[in-house]
Amino acid sequence: MSDGNSCRVDGSAEERHTEPTPDESVSPDDVGPTAVGDDRKKHVSVRTRTNDHHDHGDVYLKHSSAAFFVSPEPSFPDGATTRYAKGDLSRVEVTQHHSMCFITTATAGDGPALDALRGFRDDALARSGPGRALVATYDSVSPPIAATLSRHPEATTTQVVRWLVRRCGALARRRTHAAPAVRAALTGLLVVLYVVGVVCAALGHLAIRYRERSGEKPSDVLDG
Question: Does the model's pTM come out above 0.70?
Answer without folding.
Answer: no
